[in-house]
Amino acid sequence: MDRIRIRGGTPLEGRIPISGAKNAALPLMAAGLLTDGPLRLLNAPDLADIATMAGLLRQHGLTVEHDKQARSITLSGAARNLEAPYDLVRKMRASVLVLGPLVARFGEAKVSLPGGCAIGTRPIDLHLKGLEQMGAEIEIEAGYVLARAPRGLKGARILFPQVSVGATENLLMAACLAEGETELVNAAREPEISDLAECLMRMGARIEGIGTDRLRVEGTGSLAGATHRVVPDRIEAGTFAIAAAITGGRVLLEGARLDHLGATARILREAGVEVAERPEGLRVSRMNGLSGVDVMTEPFPGFATDMQAQFMALMCVAEGASMITETIFENRFMHVPELMRMGARINYHGHSAIVRGVPKLSGAPVMATDLRASVSLILAGLAAEGETIVNRVYHLDRGYERVEAKLAAVGAEIERIGG
Ligand SMILES: CC(=O)N[C@H]1[C@@H](OP(=O)(O)OP(=O)(O)OC[C@H]2O[C@@H](n3ccc(=O)[nH]c3=O)[C@H](O)[C@@H]2O)O[C@H](CO)[C@@H](O)[C@@H]1O
Ligand SMILES: C=C(OP(=O)(O)O)C(=O)O
């Protein structure tokens, strides 16, 4: 399995292109099930998760063309097979996003339960309850969700007791083909949800309240094909902002959007990082010292859980202490022991970690456990003295496109070792 070798200490300088967002592209691909298409997605990232979703949609019967040169994905045709098998769903939780579109359009779906993953149990009860409220009959059998709505779904008022990105996306897609009006209350407001809603509108859906926590959808009989540009990846942008900050460098994040960073930009500024909007993207630099800042993860526009591990790496070399509280996932501190192997001073208990900054981290062999934990170890390696080897990088390839090439282009000493 591939490893990443880093020799730390070089301040990063230059321009980094930001790819299309994984977490926008995956639901947009699932939206391809709602139409015969073609649905053409531009600015599509080239990632392992995108290949997994393409594989899943192909086995449902769609034609999926991923033109990596043109960075486009074109989806066309109608699903013939309504089953999403365990072998594909277990690889990637976002596979469950085929459930809403399949049952809304074809009146039936059989989708493997995704199961837990490294960061938590991640149930899908809110997805299922919402579909039931829209008239679907749901049974769980042998690890599969069997959903049936032979006469189609009906609009409903769905109040989420907890904000869920995936449940909002699944039910938003289902509502587009339901009969009558659906209201999603306490809906997630992440930029990826607005991106999905805008694409659905281009396909002919009627949605109001985009960007708010109350989405109203007037169902239509069918949706058409469309062309849509995937939003830039705010988590990739935030990750590279921290790469610049942790090395005392200066980078231009091409295409990144300040309004999509939510609380991340404010918190980085509080820590001593300069973040400025430019016509081509975001300029991020750090000329002076870093200071410890407390953060708590929250749904958008709060500080993103997908930025927590990277921010912790930064706080490892800040002056003073930082309390980091994870409120979204129950087990998202697996990077802590690995960062400690590099000399970080961290105490954690339950949902909170106290990080006491040290002047220098030291390079070490470390093990990646999930996507954002993996990249946090790369960030720590960029700031550390000596060599860091990040093992088990397949997690990284799920969500970062050519991460080592992008970092090497701005001066990092980093390479992938195959094998
Ligand atoms: C592909 C994708 O976009 N993944 C993102 C998405 O994941 P995902 O859509 O899985 O995350 P959710 O927003 O649904 O999860 C938020 C919380 O709600 C809980 N929950 C969720 C659904 C449900 O039916 N029942 C329930 O209890 C989850 O266990 C978690 O504790 O949003 C997360 C939170 O911003 C991000 O970390 C992931 O990167
Ligand atoms: C947790 C993440 O992804 P997923 O929901 O696909 O596991 C992530 O992108 O950080």
UniProtKB/TrEMBL annotation:
Q: Where does it mainly reside?
A: cytoplasm
Q: Which Gene3D superfamilies match?
A: Enolpyruvate transferase domain
Q: Write down the superkingdom of origin.
A: Bacteria
Q: Alphabetically, which GO biological process terms does the record hold?
A: cell division; cell wall organization; peptidoglycan biosynthetic process; regulation of cell shape; UDP-N-acetylgalactosamine biosynthetic process
What UniProt keywords apply to this chain's record, in alphabetical order?
Cell cycle, Cell division, Cell shape, Cell wall biogenesis/degradation, Cytoplasm, Peptidoglycan synthesis, Pyruvate, Transferase
Q: What is its EC number?
A: 2.5.1.7
**Catalyzed reaction equations:** phosphoenolpyruvate + UDP-N-acetyl-alpha-D-glucosamine = UDP-N-acetyl-3-O-(1-carboxyvinyl)-alpha-D-glucosamine + phosphate
Q: Which GO-annotated molecular functions does the record name?
A: UDP-N-acetylglucosamine 1-carboxyvinyltransferase activity
User: What is the protein named?
Assistant: UDP-N-acetylglucosamine 1-carboxyvinyltransferase
Organism annotation: Roseicella frigidaeris
